[in-house]
Design goal:
The complex is a heterodimer of chains A (360) and B (174). Chain A has 360 residues and is an alpha+beta fold. Chain A has 8 helices and 17 strands. The N terminus of chain B is likely disordered. Chain B has 6 helices and 8 strands; from the N terminus they run H-H-E-E-E-E-H-E-H-E-H-E-E-H. Classes of the chains: A alpha+beta (360), B alpha/beta (174). Chains A and B meet through helix 5, strand 9 and strand 16 of A and helix 2 and helix 4 of B.
Chain lengths: 360, 174
């Protein structure tokens, strides 16, 4: 599913000469504006239908979430917030009489590249409560036991937070891999990953692993769940989305908080994606000319062809029929009298996501 | 067994990779974990593929195999047909096999069932709550339930359920 949105973007064969010239250097430049539209159609109606759709809920130095609008035949629709994390989402209800529930949500958002200048150190203050929250365990990200043991081994000899983060980033790149058969973006159960000894997964596994390892050694870190909305300006087919059809383009990144720099972009999962899928052969060496620039630049930066939804773990969906929590909200969610919709099967729960860049 | 937290219950998606790749004809590759009489057996009420409610309680009086699976899990797919062979083999003992699908829509499950020409009973754990309650950490995981309705054996990993060795070994738990 993840590959589907990128299939038309590039050829699949990279001549060695071209591979040697690959460049990936996002620089902080102007803002890009996108309209991201999620269109949902529920084919199999059983009683009342409820939907929860992620919306861009980040406002910071790399993203401005400008607003949301929606149309359709919903009985009611409104923006709501998760009770524990405060992540905003669109909550939609269709009464049982609505024969063909449909809704189109359009979110307007501005993004730009991130690229940290490591030479410019300062002192960044952040809300202590926020930092504390980003050091805590979640249901799928324990910060003790095998997670802490692994992180401590990986950071031996590292003294500063920057050194620890660098060691953990490289540890993930060196020891994990992108498992193409993982469904969706993965479950994000890092304890299970580590206990299995098989560190294969996708972004929700691999960046969650990085986040959990960072937290376990005292570095605030968080996942940022979102979606790719445009091709990569650097020609990396695996690091972009086909704007017209963003099927499978969901992608989570991560951030760490470093006192001298503030929140810093990190994406070891995308390094592993490039290594596994960018070329016909699985790249096993991160110094390979295709992988090396990505490995370097995603430590402290990322490309603004991606929109972040939220950073929440363990969400409680308002009006959900069940008492449990959702590990993260990256895909549309829904349920009716027949149960929870399968967000990864386009049968009764059909949705498309498309993005349009607004050029002033 | 008993109720477990989500962390324990969800090796889940990654589990398709983690699950045993080698077919354990004699059961050597899978983990056979007998359950003590003190362990609890969580209740189970789930919809079948026709959205009719099925409950574990209705299966009392005969042995039952409860197989937690997902269509994206290669070892699960590989062993599914042999589960039917097992049901046939123990027909005289009135063994029933019920496959509990993890969090997939009815349509993909139905498609898989038809494509594989399967006839065994299937129910859907659409919220993943059954897997959590039963402490399922990897797929496939199979429980043997005795005629009194108590889980007596947990098997983690793929088996060739049609093999004589497995059937002989299983006999003592039915």
């Amino acid at each position: 599913m993840l590959q589907a949105g990128c299939a038309a973007l590039s050829s699949t064969v990279l001549p060695q000469a071209f591979a040697a010239e690959r460049r990936f250097e996002p620089q902080v430049q102007g803002w890009r504006t996108f309209e991201v539209t999620t269109t949902v159609n529920v084919a199999d109606v059983k009683g009342a239908t409820r939907l929860w759709l992620p919306v861009p809920d980040l406002d910071n130095a790399f993203q401005r979430s400008l607003g949301n609008s929606w149309t359709g035949n919903a009985t009611s629709a409104r923006l709501v917030s998760d009770a524990t994390q405060g992540a905003r989402m669109l909550y939609v209800e269709f009464s049982p009489e609505v024969a063909a529930p449909t809704l189109a949500l359009t979110s307007t958002v501005q993004t730009r590249n991130r690229a940290l200048d490591w030479s410019k150190k300062g002192v960044v203050h952040e809300d202590p409560a926020l930092l504390k929250a980003n050091l805590a365990a979640t249901e799928l990200l324990p910060v003790d036991g095998i997670v802490r043991d692994t992180a401590r081994k990986a950071t031996q000899g590292a003294h500063t937070d920057v050194e620890k983060v660098r060691a953990l980033y490289q540890w993930v790149v060196d020891n994990a891999y992108r498992e193409t058969t993982t469904r969706g973006c993965g479950a994000g159960d890092i304890q299970a990953l580590l206990e299995s000894g098989n560190l294969g997964g996708k972004c929700a596994d691999l960046n969650a692993l990085f986040v959990g390892l960072c937290r376990s050694v005292g570095v605030p870190a968080r996942d940022v769940y979102g979606i790719r909305v445009a091709p990569s300006a650097f020609g990396y087919k695996e690091l972009g989305g086909n704007s017209a059809s963003l099927k499978g383009a969901q992608h989570c990144r991560s951030e760490v908080f470093l006192k001298q720099y503030g929140w810093v972009a990190m994406d070891p999962a995308d390094v592993l994606k490039v290594m596994r899928q960018e070329t016909p052969d699985w790249i096993k060496d991160k110094t390979n000319p295709v992988a090396a620039p990505v490995n370097k630049s995603l430590f402290g930066g990322w490309e603004g062809n991606w929109v972040g939804w939220n950073t929440a773990h363990d969400l409680k969906l308002p009006h959900y029929s069940r008492p449990g929590t959702l590990p993260f909200l990256m895909y549309p969610q829904g349920e009716n009298a027949a149960g929870r919709f399968d967000e990864l099967a386009p049968d009764s729960f059909r949705y498309t996501i498309a993005a349009k860049e607004i050029i002033a | 067994m008993g109720l477990l937290n989500r962390r324990q219950a969800s090796a889940l998606l990654a589990a398709s990779v983690m699950a045993s790749r080698a077919v354990a004809a004699g059961g050597e590759g899978a983990r056979w974990l007998p359950l003590s009489a003190k362990s609890t057996t969580p209740p189970l009420r789930l919809p079948d593929l026709a959205d009719q409610e099925w409950s574990l309680a209705q299966e009392q009086g005969h042995p039952l195999l409860l197989n937690f699976w997902a269509s994206w899990c290669e070892p699960c797919r590989a062993e599914m047909k042999s589960l039917e062979a097992l049901e046939v083999h123990f027909r005289a003992r009135r063994l029933r096999v019920v496959a509990v699908n993890f969090k997939e829509g009815r349509e993909p499950v139905q498609r898989f069932r038809e494509a594989q020409a399967l006839t065994l009973a299937m129910v859907r754990d659409s919220y993943g709550e059954a897997a959590r309650a039963w402490g399922v950490r990897s797929f496939p995981t199979t429980f043997v339930i005795n005629p009194a309705g108590r889980a007596v054996l947990r098997i983690e990993g793929e088996l060739d359920w049609g093999s004589t060795t497995v059937q002989q070994r299983l006999q003592t738990f039915l």
